[in-house]
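Archive maintenance. Older records in this collection stored only the sequence; we are now back-filling the structure field for every entry so that each record is complete. The fields below show one back-filled record exactly as it appears after the update. Entries are processed alphabetically, and Polynucleotide kinase 3'-phosphatase is next in the queue.

ARCHIVE ENTRY
Title: Polynucleotide kinase 3'-phosphatase
Organism field: Monilinia fructigena
Length field: 267
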Amino acid sequence: MGMWKELLEDFDIHAPGDLNLQESIFVGDAAGRDASTERPKDFSCSDRNFAENIGIKFYTPEEYFLREAPKPFTRTFEPADYSSGNTTAPPKYKKGSPTDVVILCGSPGAGKSTFYWKQLEPLGYARVNQDILKTRDKCFKVAGQFLEEGSLWLWVNNTNADRDVRSKWIALAAKHSVPIRCVHFLAGVQVCEHNDAVRALNEIMNPEKRKILPKLAFTSFTSRYQTTRIDRRVPGYYRSAIQVRGKRSPTRNMDSTLDLRYHSITQ
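Back-filled structure field:
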């Protein structure tokens, strides 16, 4: 979408009536076409996705110039597949005890900050965010200060991908005799990359002005991730869902239901 915005700027196209999208087309060979006896699989579906995001008709060169019939294609990620069509408000997060620490485990772009602002901030949770504090050591320091000052509820917004870092948070909570729970975001990599791009390109959805992340941020989380070890002896293990609204394009909205769990953990 950045390339599209640049094109509009270059040609001084701003008003809605300056461009007729319904009569516009985009021709490209990165169409996600499946392999056949005539040709190999397309290397990408980026051209088709580009046209879809803009909202204009798409053709392959063979379809447009040679009048061939459309070939079957596959998208590895289709935002419409995540449309819930459900207007019911998601379940509210409930405090597990009079005091607790909540750590989040999930990829960048999984909805952790949205979860905080919509669910935890109204409950009075203090916030420890590595995106703001920059280093893990500073997060531990600030969290310790919060607990020493008597904050009853503490929320930690890092990816917390592996058991080693989660064990440090568990130890900190134990030091202050405070129970700890984990909110585990299960959104896949492609959903998270999509959400990150939507956030970076939408000022309304990006009050903290975060820049788009490199792909390494997502692959790194995947490579480091270790499953949480759940303490089922402690009440409070259950599954829920959070709805996240994002924009696929300037004119199209997407409602995604992202599965998550919150539970007591041992690692």
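Update note: The first helix runs from residue 2 to 10. The chain has a mean pLDDT of 81.
Entry marked complete.
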